[in-house]
# Entry
Amino acid sequence: MNRVCVVSGFAFASVLAMACQDKAELAVYKGKATPTDPATIGSKTGAKADSRFEVDGGGASQPISKVSAASLLSRAKPLLGALAQQADNPANPSTTEKIDLGHLLYFDPRLSKSQKISCNTCHDLASYGVDIREKNGARSRTSEGHDAHFGERNTPTVYNAAFHMAQFWDGRAVDVEDQATKPILNPIEMAMDDDAAVLAALKAVPQYVEMFAAAFPESASDPITMANLSKAIGAYERKLVTPAPFDRFMGGDLTALDEAQLLGLQYFLDVGCTQCHSGPAVGGMQFQKLGTIKPWPDLVDEGRAAHTKNAIDKFVFKVPSLRNVTETGPWLHDGSFTELEAIVGKMAEFQSARGKVTLAETEAIVAFLGSLKGELPKELIKVPELPGIEPAVEPAKPSPI
Ligand code: HEC
Ligand code: HEC
# Structure
């Protein structure tokens, strides 16, 4: 279920104009607040605009009680919401056959020219769907693909991605199905020569021939096609959902978040992070400029403009989901931030009308972001035995002396 919202008008004092294609009932950014009009932010709930800053050092003016947990819940619910169990696509109905096939394909390195790179190489499902390979003792900013090539952009997580209104940092793929074959053919990722090479690799595996036929009975004469490959991987990705303590809170459990997290949620709402990080995925529903309030320094990647060739899209990126964000660093489209506190501080300063936040506020927001860390679907992400490949035999261990 998607809602496509395009927000334009990034200049100072301009009114944000939103055009939303109505694909779902999600309530996103109903307010009339502009990024430069702090007085209106938070006014929906009657909260004083600057109440957050009243206490010296930025601490809470009052301890968060159960009552305010309830009021936070009612503020947050229409802006954020609980994750659904899966992200459905009527054009690609979910079936066990497709999901099982997608599971194998996701892990299969034979979809790469080197036969060494699978989706899981860069989007490691056991590690929150991001690339955990290290370079010089830290996670790489960008991923190593075919022939030791590195791309320009950080690898986003595949978890909950199917909920986004579009895929990639610049939104150039409409959904996970549309996205799925692109890395396979990308010369610096999996680098297959063309569709024919991909289809030949799949047809060479008898079990795939059977599984495609079972998953796509409507195309019985020729089930192995790029479109069906996309659908199988897409159906699998639509199940990669990570329910978190925050969802229990959205469901009405006022004890699901601890005090620091509740305080962080209050700041998150007060600062107006939800103007952009909205919907159940806490993002993924809008395109926004990086540097809304003041120019982001030293930007190289032009974001959406590189795809749309439209000047208004310069430095505009899809607002990322903040689900599991504590686990998915380094952050930003270029992986330029290695500390979550640092990027949260910069977000407040460069993206929100409320401006800089204190260290204590930043820490509370980071604690709140921790409540978005979800459970991984263990069964669904087991490393599968791939058809037509002998399972690696464990080398015999020397017997203990
Ligand atoms: C070499 C590393 C690499 C491999 C292999 C790879 N990806 Fe990605 N993936 C990336 C990068 C980098 C991006 C972001 C690119 C961009 O936004 O321009 C991305 C983006 C995505 C997204 C969009 C997520 C979002 O939030 O917008 C999805 C979904 C995805 N990949 C799924 C897959 C699937 C499925 C496969 C296997 C068929 C795969 N990827 C293989 C690196 C990789
Ligand atoms: C005006 C819109 C806007 C507002 C307000 C906003 N953000 Fe963002 N945020 C973005 C965009 C766009 C990106 C992605 C930019 C990029 O990668 O170049 C982003 C990225 C992030 C990231 C990095 C995520 C990742 O996976 O790399 C974090 C964390 C984040 N924002 C947190 C926050 C917090 C916390 C607030 C409130 C203090 C906030 N944002 C306010 C638009 C916004």
Observations:
- The chain has 13 helices and six strands.
- Residues 162 and 237 are 7 Å apart (CA to CA).
- The beta strands are 4-8, 17-21, 134-135, 138-139, 286-289, 316-318.
